[in-house]
Amino acid sequence: MEVKGRIISKGVAEGEALTTNMPISFYGGVDPETSEIIEKGHELQGKQIKGKILVFPNGKGSTVGSYTLYRLKKGGVAPAGIINSDCETVVAVGAIISEIPCVDEIDISKIETGDTVRIENGVVKIET
Q1: Catalytic positions
Q2: What is the DSSP string of the chain?
Q3: What is the CATH number of the domain that holds 55?
Q4: How confident is the model at residue 128 (pLDDT cuts 50, 70, 90)?
Q5: Mean pLDDT for the stretch of residues 114-125
Q6: What's the CA gap between 13 and 113, in Å, rounded?
């Protein structure tokens, strides 16, 4: 299946989807050293986002989250790509400065954890 979204950060990424219906706070919610989701009660708590196509509705929390995404990238533990329903400023800035391909305006309910996903030029290709 292919769907077209809005390009937030250009690039090509392919990998295994890690999907949640919960917003993600990168500042305080993701360990910048290990890429583990550490937010208490989050449905992805304990999972690592390194190398994954991270699928979530939107970000939340502090603007420091943009820098946390940058730290993840510089440390080699960033997600390969990001897909949002509605990308807000913190995730958008983080993806752009970190050169992580990011697209939004996607119906994320169509993507399940474990699917192989490719992002290219705003097109999301999903293989279940």
Answers
A1: 62
A2: -EEE-EEEE--EEEEEEEE-SS-B-HHHHB-TTT-BB--TT-TTTT-B-TTSEEEES-B-S-THHHHHHHHHHHTT---SEEEESS--HHHHHHHHHHT--EEES--GGG--TT-EEEEETTEEEEE-
A3: 3.50.30.10
A4: confident
A5: 97
A6: 16
Q: What is the pTM of this model?
A: 0.97
d(C-alpha 14, C-alpha 35), whole Å: 18
> Can you read off the two tokens belonging to residue 28?
């305080």
Name the residue range of residue 18's domain. 2-127
Residue keyed to tokens 């292919």: 2
Q: What is the number of domains present in the chain?
A: 1
Give the residue among 124, 66, 62 at the shortest CA–CA distance from 93.
66
Quick one: what percent of the chain has pLDDT higher than 90? Answer: 99
The first and second tokens of residue 87, run together, are 């990308």
